[in-house]
Design goal:
156 residues, alpha+beta, ten-stranded antiparallel β-sheet
């Protein structure tokens, strides 16, 4: 199934669509300055608006600190379904729906997403997972590696 990803990080817009898929749109608030580490330009929930086929959904990206789990992104859809994208390795992130693992996604921040599904995804699973991976990237270093990099910056 073909998934179209239109990401404009500096402009703060993301649109995911495709035949048989709901349209997922993620917008950064106009006039907000993009950060350089997040493809959509922010991890601040107050600056983001998410819709799935025109229905608003709540999005809550964690702050993205030292622990992999701190890079998670939670979504609550209008019908009460909970999604979570959380890093599970250096490159990949795991997508869950209501706590059940759906698959892994890979995106280095360029808008291209590679997905590997454990079970057949619904069209909403595929569209939303792709949108989250494209908007926030996937993967994260383990905490001990991050600490090592920080300490290494201070050593001569």
């Amino acid at each position: 199934m073909y998934v179209q990803v239109d990401l404009d990080g500096p402009g703060g817009t993301l649109r995911v669509s495709g035949y048989g898929l709901p349209v997922v749109e993620l917008l950064r608030a106009p006039g907000t300055r993009p950060d350089s580490h997040t493809p959509i330009g922010t991890r601040k929930a107050a600056q983001l608006a998410l819709s799935i086929d025109g229905e608003p959904a709540e999005i809550e990206p964690a702050r993205g600190r030292m622990l992999r789990h701190s890079y998670r992104v939670d979504v609550l859809t209008s019908d009460g379904v909970e999604y979570r994208l959380v890093p599970c390795g250096h490159d990949y992130s795991r997508l869950t729906r209501d706590g059940r693992r759906l698959g892994r996604l890979l995106c280095s921040g360029d808008g291209r997403v590679i997905d590997r599904w454990d079970t057949a995804p619904t069209p909403r699973d595929r569209a939303l997972g792709t949108a989250l991976a494209a908007a926030f990237g996937t993967g994260a270093s383990p905490w001990w590696e991050t600490v090592g990099e920080i300490v290494g910056e201070f050593l001569p």
